[in-house]
Amino acid sequence: MRDTWTTRPETAADAAAVREIHLAAFDTPLEAGLVDALRADPAWIDGLSWVSTGTDGTPAGHALLTRCHIGDVPALCLGPVAVRPEHQRAGAGSAAVRAALRAAGSLGERHVVVLGHPEYYPRFGFVRASAHGIRLTIDVPDEAVMALALDAGSPLPAGTVRYAEPFGI
């Protein structure tokens, strides 16, 4: 049975809980460190780091959107996304991702890229980026690079994705 999740933008008071979510969800501290580094980077956009909480208000899932570019066109990068292991496959991650994407659209953002599981992200509307001429500078499986147009009137631009410096890509 799926839980009911409440979503909200991350606050300064959530930083430690968000770090713990990433430390619990991944085998290494790389994603937790990346989130911390992105908070201090110009790519950070207030209001685009979202948490999902259970009935007790404790953050269980996290989704982050930061500035990147596709060629010269401003876009957003989705990730890292994480859910505490005890809440995985219960909708906490999906709730946080959907809320972050809605917030991005309300800010007038038009395009999002993600490097992630090709079985997971299409549920949000992501499609294979290479079909739109979008590529990375690193060698990854083609199906793992996906893109989303938040506004049907703004087709995805072609070009190479330039990530924020903390990504190291």
Detailed description of the structure:
The relative contact order is 0.18. The protein has helices spanning 15-25, 30-39, 92-106; strands at 6-9, 44-53, 59-70, 73-83, 111-115, 127-128, 134-135, 145-149, 159-162. Strand 4 (73-83), helix 3 and strand 5 form a beta-alpha-beta unit. With 169 residues, it is α+β, with helices and mostly antiparallel strands. The protein is built from 3 helices and 9 strands, in the order E-H-H-E-E-E-H-E-E-E-E-E. Strands 1, 2, 3, 4, 5, 6, 7, 8 and 9 form a 9-stranded mixed sheet that branches. Helix 1 (15-25) packs antiparallel against helix 2 (30-39).
Low-confidence stretches: none
> Shape from CA axes?
globular
Mean pLDDT: 95
The end-to-end span amounts to: 38 Å
Radius of gyration from CA coordinates: 15 Å
What's the number of helices? 3
Helix content: 10-25%
Give the SSE order as H and E letters: EHHEEEHEEEEE
Structural class determined from secondary elements: alpha+beta
Q: How many beta-strand elements?
A: 9
Largest sheet: 9 strands, mixed
Query: Hey, roughly how much beta strand do the residues contain?
Result: 25-35%
Topology record:
Elements: E1 6-9, H1 15-25, H2 30-39, E2 44-53, E3 59-70, E4 73-83, H3 92-106, E5 111-115, E6 127-128, E7 134-135, E8 145-149, E9 159-162
Parallel strand pairs: 4-5, 7-9
Antiparallel strand pairs: 1-2, 2-3, 3-4, 3-9, 5-8, 6-8
Helix pairs in contact: 1-2
